[in-house]
Amino acid sequence: MERSSWVLVDGENIDATLGGSILGRRPLPEERPRWDRLLTFISERWGRPAKGLFFLNASTHLPMPFVQALLALGYQPVPLSGPADEKIVDIAIQRTLQALAERDDDVALVSHDRDFAEDLARLATDGRRVGVVAFHEFRSTEFTGIPGVEFFDIEYDAAAFDAPLPRVRVIPIEQFDPTDFLR
Questions:
Q1: β 149-153/75-80 pair status
Q2: How far is it, in rounded angstroms, from Cα 147 to Cα 106?
Q3: Which end of the chain is more exposed for a tag (fewer CB within 10 A), N or C?
């Protein structure tokens, strides 16, 4: 069987970061990632077919038009339900990462969430390619301590957006000048 690259999308995490931390409001449809570009990016970057799993919290609502769009783009939607106090999308992604440990496939996680660091660390030790696709400045620092993980910016490397997003420049402390802000 041919080795594949799995793209696991934590859509809630990406959407929350895009809306809450970058745009400061709910993203408009044209401001959301072009999810098909992530599959193409990973497939071209790693030189093997990419399969996408898109995890959705469908406890209160299943957005059928979005599910149909994901299917058309080549993703397998994974609609989940569960108690409101459980991170059901994270649980499902963790279980999927653990199941992938039994296979030789490569894995690209699309999330900023540190909850996946332990499982990614296990996968990164056995010769497969492991990547994290996220907004660089919001990606959990726990991922950077994992040897062998490749990092890709969802906007700049994967080119998943049609227009540039507003960004906040993070200032290294040695370059910080308070007079830049005291105007």
A1: unpaired
A2: 15
A3: C
pLDDT tens digits for range 46-74: 999 999 999 999 988 888 999 999 999 99
Report the candidate in 92, 99, 16, 7 with the shortest Cα–Cα distance to residue 56. Answer: 92
Supply 94's token pair: 């963790």
The percent helix, strand, coil of the chain (3-state, each to 5) is 40, 20, 40
Contact 22, 166 (CB under 8 A): yes
Q: Are 97 and 149 in contact (CB under 8 A)?
A: no
Looking up tokens 């999330």 gives 111
Q: What are phi and psi of 154, to 5 degrees?
A: -65, -30
Contact 13, 73 (CB under 8 A): no
- Residue 74, sorted as left (phi over 0), alpha (psi -120 to 50) or beta, turns out to be left
Reference 22, options 11, 31, 30, 10; nearest CA is 31
Q: How far apart are CA 136 and CA 151, in angstroms?
A: 8
pTM (two decimals):
0.89
H or E element, residue 7: strand 5-10
Q: Which amino acid is at 14?
A: I
